[in-house]
Amino acid sequence: MYFSLLIILCLLLYLPFPSLSDSNPLLTQVCGGASNYSDNSTYSSNINQLFSSLATNSTSIGFASGTVGSVPNLVSGLVLCRGDTNSSFCSSCLSTAFQNAVQLCPYDRAATIFYDYCLLKFSNEQFLSSTDNSLQIRGPSPANVTSDPARFDQIVTDLLSNASAWASYNSTRRFAIGEATNFSQQYPVIYGLVQCTPDLTSSECQSCLQGLFVRKQQYFKGIEGGRILGVRCNFRYEVYSFYSGQPTVKLDATAVTLPPAPMLEPTGSSGKKSRTTIISIAVAIPAFIVCLSLMTFSFCFWRKRRSSRKVLVKYNFDSDDMEGADSLLLDLSTLKTATTNFNESNKLGQGGFGAVYKGTLPNGQDIAVKRMSQSSGQGLGELKNELILVAKLQHKNLVRVLGWCLEEQEKLLVYEFVPNRSLDTFLFNPEKKAELNWRKRSTIINGVARGLQYLHEDSQLRIIHRDLKASNILLDADMTPKISDFGLARLFSVDQTVDVTKRVVGTFGYMAPEYAMHGLYSTKSDVFCFGILLLEIITGKRNSGFWESNEAEDLLSFAWENWTAGTVPQLADPTLKHCPSNEIVRCVHIALLCVQDNPTDRPKMSEVVIMLSSNTMSLKAPFRPSFCITNTGSESNLYLQVNHNQGSGSSQPSDMSGHVSQNQVSITELDAR
């Protein structure tokens, strides 16, 4: 008997028990990074330290993010477990991810690992401040819906939309599961799941998921199940239960409205058929007349609409540039209704390009509409530039473009509405600047720095803004800064570090010396602008109008004099109360490093972000800044022809006359590039 039990136990040891790898398969891995690292290097040590920190910090909510080290060995990472996993399963999944990451992507400085129940991403770039969800994997079911696929798709869309709202506004973990019941005998229940990383705001989570739902409609029509996994958000739906826990959202499929059934011709006797024929003829004649009228009207409307959109061809809005922009196309009638036909009472600002109006879409969403002046020949070039660039970017510190319109000679860009308008309306207003305490100013400084870092280093595109200033920093209801106005921005290739232009465009008081004198611009030009902006935020003084004070010739000289005299805390805006002097000194130090004359002496924005977030990181001593363009008046834009023989400048007009235009609104006045 005992011998038999022993044999049974031995057999049991060799039976294939289910493991984590069986129930939690590896879906895919994406390896990358600009370069590799080696064993026993600082980067390798930082990765191990980061993994240990993420494993410890993710036990409570299944999510953690962090950064270890400093440039060039800085490593950032995040982990996320599916919301229906317990802490034990989550830990096991992440442990597997940590082990496999270095095996699947050996010595790569960046990797993203997707499992069924968790994901891991690490990189040598600072991506944590970004809401970018462009890295995605799709997983459709191999089976098609056999009965009423259109209604099935609509029910899935409604289910996921309801779950998205719950996850965004009712769940601190940004997670929701749901069921749609009573669809059919074949599919009695449809199951859905949505999730975002918990560090996203409600609106960011909702926006991220809506972006995935658009792709669902594109790839999963009439499919029984599918999923799209991104680093920041994901969804999944199936016709079988694939999650654990009670649904937070329930949908009765019978409540979905179906289209009316087509009318069938009645059958009956020959007399009824004759009567039916007579009635049909009597109905057909006026119907034909109505149809002919409608066709004539439609043809005229099409001709008018086609002629109004010839501007698309005239100005070379080619399909490659405008990829993805068609989904943002809005009707002029919609925007006229939203702004009450561009009523003066809705005007937010006025500039040489035209005006900006507040509007409200039919769904209740507030918008800001930039209406280019019809007499401005430069407006369309700026609209194209801004639309192409900003529509491809997604970051909480960049203003979002919601749509565009080119009809009846109108050139319109539609942005998210930012209720607190621009930073300069607070910073340089004697009455309102007191609302900006040091905590708010510090938040604005850090947000702008992260937004610039995203443009320069973390986005799929490398973009030079070229016109960063207080009036181009918009503030939302929470005073979160959003960089706006990309009309003067330039796109760099991956390996490009500098470019040259024959025509300098920008704003007095913010331009770097190499740009103003020689037309050379790079990411370091934006760093210079950030340094000026940082000093303005600290002092509450406008650099371009500093000539009015008797303290110094310009803001840079004023800051340097206090730096050398050891009186940096005196630079702080007098309206600031209980302002930590050590933080003021450190911010001024960082600002002076950003405005160094030699671009190579200026830090990258990723380094600036680290400097701002660390009080222990040592900073090198700055040199005296010696260059500043000022203007005897309020903030003005500069358009200056530069004569030089450095490189091949971009295609520009040969107009030798400079052009200076007043600009006091939150969106820059622009000229052709």
From TrEMBL:
Please name the taxonomic classification of the source: Eukaryota, Viridiplantae, Streptophyta, Embryophyta, Tracheophyta
Which intervals hold domain Protein kinase?
342-624
The record ties this protein, via InterPro entries, to: GNK2 (IPR002902), GNK2_sf (IPR038408), Kinase-like_dom_sf (IPR011009), Prot_kinase_dom (IPR000719), Protein_kinase_ATP_BS (IPR017441), Ser-Thr/Tyr_kinase_cat_dom (IPR001245), Ser/Thr_kinase_AS (IPR008271)
Task: Name the residue ranges with Polar residues bias.
Answer: 643-667
GO CC annotation terms, alphabetical: plasma membrane
| CDD domains found in the cross-reference section | Gnk2-like, STKc_IRAK
Q: Which organism is it from?
A: Rhynchospora pubera
What segment(s) does the record annotate as region Disordered? Answer: 643-673
* SUPFAM superfamilies, sorted: Protein kinase-like (PK-like)
Its primary localisation, in coarse terms, equals membrane
Write down the membrane topology.
Answer: Single-pass membrane protein
Q: What is this protein called?
A: Cysteine-rich RECEPTOR-like kinase
